[in-house]
Amino acid sequence: MTAGREPAEALRALLPAGRVLTDPDAMDAYTRDQTYAVPGAPLAVVRARDTSDVAATMAWAQEERVPVVPRGAGTGLAGGATAVDGCVVLSLAAMTAIREISPRDHVAVVEPGVITADLDRAARAHGLMYAPDPSSHEISTIGGNLATNAGGLRCVKYGVTRHSTLGLEVVLAGGTVIRTGGRTVKGVTGYDLTGLFVGSEGTLGVITAATVRLFPAPARPPATVLATFPSLTAAGAAAAAIMGAGLRPSLLELVDRATLRAIDEWRRIDLDPGAAAVVIAQTDGPECPADALVRECEGAGAAFAAASCDEAEADALLEVRRLAYPAAERLGKCLVEDVCVPRSRLPEMVERIERASERHGVRILTVAHAGDGNLHPLFVFDRGLPGPPPPVLAAADEVFSAAIDLGGTLTGEHGVGVLKRPWLDAEMGPDVRDVHRRIKRALDPDGVLNPGKAI
């Protein structure tokens, strides 16, 4: 750094005009995600346009020992993109190029700022689709999805983001650019570095491009099944029965009564007001007949179960599922969790969530990617509080403990961020934690990449 020059000015001198923000008001929008986590005050925000901007920023940051917090659209639910004091927030939202779509190889090469749904729409113009579809798919970015290994509604059949990622371009701490994997379906040369970076929450490197797998789009609209249940446990049992029977729905979601009521108060949906829970399933292929899904739901005690091929009805039902989080937000601040258990243990897990809600007097709305055993309990608390009060934390602790007791995990797709770090030791023993720390030190020896997050 030039002697006497302010750090932000030295960074500005390295990058093209307009890339660096230092005005506090302008930076504020880049400091937080969708959680209640309180952000720190950044030194600057870099709005990267290409890989060279990212590499120059990382080289400067390592030399000056300045922390860097990578950021996409800020839709995260674990505090992973929140600024820390004195950091540079590295925004990748302007890196929006779809560099290539190959209909012959069924791959796309995309930059991290591409909106998830935009990639899917671009692929469908070629008769293909991008499978991962988190509920925030219309606003979340590919880079954020890669950072957290996001899933979504279709992951029950097509897998999470890691399953659709073939290769990466990554900028390491210090500014070195590497490329992992490739565009082949198979490839086992060396360690699986692609898999290592996916889900690492920006703590090991900054992803600046990805080669992702595309799938043939279904030839016809999917059949959609709606089933209502007299209890949340029965709905969970239906989901477990569907997967246990070897059926492969393309979507299998569960929504509880509290969530349905919150959505109905807001949007006036036309679903059974007496239902304790609903299961919404879709099938887009002959390997999973819709009538088989209906039979499994009826066998688990559904009060009503029916299939439809009407696209408008299907869109309306999926919109109900996607409205769960914004509907909960209207009730207050939310601690949004995403524990995951073996699919056969889903009925027990929903029972444990209900007991935690009753025991601690906490309002919990539960939705689930039921086909994956991935539950999203949303703990609602007073909007005027800075963070969750003790009863909410106690209920969350009980839910986390239940998930681990049942052979599950603290997070299925949202990531650890800052919000789940207090519970890491409950899932990972000291030896596993040590391996994580050694990997972190090897790739980021000065600890500049997203410090305090994930591990």
TrEMBL record:
Keywords: FAD, Flavoprotein, Oxidoreductase. Its cofactor is FAD. Its EC number is 1.1.3.15. One of its GO terms (molecular function) is FAD binding. InterPro entries: FAD-bd_oxidored_4_C, FAD-bd_PCMH, FAD-bd_PCMH-like_sf, FAD-bd_PCMH_sub2, FAD-linked_Oxase-like_C, FAD-linked_OxidoTrans_Type4, Oxid_FAD_bind_N, Vanillyl_alc_oxidase_C-sub2. Residues 38-217 form the FAD-binding PCMH-type domain. It comes from the Bacteria. Belongs to the FAD-binding oxidoreductase/transferase type 4 family. This is Glycolate oxidase. It comes from Actinomadura citrea.
